[in-house]
Amino acid sequence: MTRRRLRDIVPLAAVVAVAAGFLLLWKVLVVVGGYPIFVLPPPETVGARLWTAWRDGVMEPHVITTLSEVLIGFVIGSGLALVAGYALARSRLTERLLSPYLVAAQATPILALAPLIALWFGTGLLSKVIICALIVFFPVAVSTMVGVRSVDSQLLEVGRVFRATPLQVLTRLEIPGALPSIFGGIRVGATLAVIGAIIGEWAGGESGLGVLINLARGSLFDTPLLFATLVTIAAIGVGLYWLILVFERRLVGERG
Amino acid sequence: MVVRGSAPRLKRSIGTSSTQAAIVRTGRDSRPGLSAFNRAPPAIAARNLRFAYGGDPPRPALDDVSFEVAPGELVAIIGANGTGKSTILKLIAGLLEPAGGTAEIRGTEVRGPSPDVGLVFQEPRLLPWRSSLANVAFPLELAGWPRSRWEARARDLLGLVGASDVDGLRPHQLSGGTRQRVSIARALALEPRVLLLDEPFSALDALTRERFNLSLQSIWKETGTTILLVTHAIPEAIFLADRVLVLAGHPGRIAAEIPIRLRRPRTLADLDAALVTDAAAQIRSALDRGVTPHLRGEDTG
User: Fold this and answer.
1) Which DSSP helix (H) or strand (E) runs through B162?
2) Which of A160, A161, A176 lies nearest to residue B129, judging by beta carbons?
3) Is B171–A164 a contact, with Cβ atoms under 8 angstroms apart?
4) What count of other Cβ atoms lies within 10 Å of the Cβ of residue B102?
5) Which domains, from first to last, does chain B contain?
6) What is the pTM of this model?
7) Which of A120, A122, A135 is nearest to A189 (CA)?
8) B148-204: pLDDT as tens digits
9) Does the bond joining B251 to the residue before it have cis omega, within 30 degrees of 0?
10) Which residues of B fall within a CB distance of 8 Å from A162?
11) So what's the pLDDT on residue B194?
12) Cβ-defined contact of B113 to A162 (cutoff 8 Å)
């Protein structure tokens, strides 16, 4: 086996080993604690429930709803945050004017805002998208601002030597230079967007994984389904994170 | 081969004064003694340049610096730290605005960066997210060259500086010396008439530096570009330059101008010649004295 293949396999094996260890601990806890299935179902019961929920078409519509909210909210929130972050980085006046409001908005718990947003914008897609966009905005805006400000001034001087236009400085120097930092914010934002969607669905909605959690916990009293939904939410978060990581590796690459 | 135009270039001596170009490039016509040639404006001219960096109080960096560099000439500026060597290059490159006097490129006052001027910094300053090829192509892309043209041009330039084999590698995968080669190739991309080199080999060890000096000499010969080189190293200045300008004092002034009358092409063995020792002694003496009456016209031969 080549050293490179070994280098790829070792981290994957470590992840699998940690997951196996976690499942084992979970099982031991259930057996030793003697918990009933409606308090803490064993992992194999949750696995079986996850399978049946997908097979019977219980999970799919909720996943589609949540994913739509997450993706639309994430794209809108990130897009606005990139523009705002750049403006904050390049204009001291903008930073002075906007910073207090941005920090105040970030400090206000989204859990408290969600019912208000649902009241104002209804319990449909719009309110969830707004919540997702709000929760994504701050980390992406701040990482963009930090990234653009930290672009090496010596590289900007190279741009001046070669008479780069302001647009060329932005697209050829500032954005590529700030990408590692921007992606740091985007990765955080993507996982927060999932949380935002669930909170939005709790505040009011007919479909979505947040709604399914409420159903499983309340009227259905189906704890294994609740756990299966949690696993699905976690999988969406991991999947988004991984997708962004792939994009990041492609766009940023090795920089030494 | 990367050359400007198709006509052969001739380097030859014209005149006896050390303040005049000893070695020049004719550009189009190789006939000796052409009067039009003598009227050609200098490739670089600094006229009573003064500059001070901002602050309270401002820090004067240059005071009344004047010199000319003829087309095709290679002139070195040598001086201690803080004498304003890099400032001169930035003024000529149009990155700084003089507090007094003017910098001129081919008779035109410098009012900002120009495609006629290439600048190689002390650090390679390559874009870490681009390959060597894409780094060399950077100025060509900015100038709107189509990919098919810039790719071929960038490959030629990498070949010229001896870095063809690293075209796909990113800066962090290159040695310090190769990074600087790529940086020189990038500076040559737009076929500048004037190349400004700010201690480009200062981070290299002595042996590598000697190899790079040989490379630079052949690049200069091949492209015929006028070069103004800032360096700390006396042997490097003597090996490469037609003339050495000694900068001294705070703020910096031209303390001496020493012509180097070594045959070209030069070899490392030439550095052992007696006249090199004389030139080195003169440079050292000028550096030690600081600002003294100019030594224009003194000969090392």
Assistant:
1) none
2) A176
3) no
4) 16
5) 11-116+193-289 (3.40.50.300), 128-191 (no CATH)
6) 0.79
7) A135
8) 899 999 999 999 888 999 999 999 999 988 999 999 999 999 999 999 999 988 877
9) yes
10) 113, 138-139, 142-143, 190
11) 95
12) yes
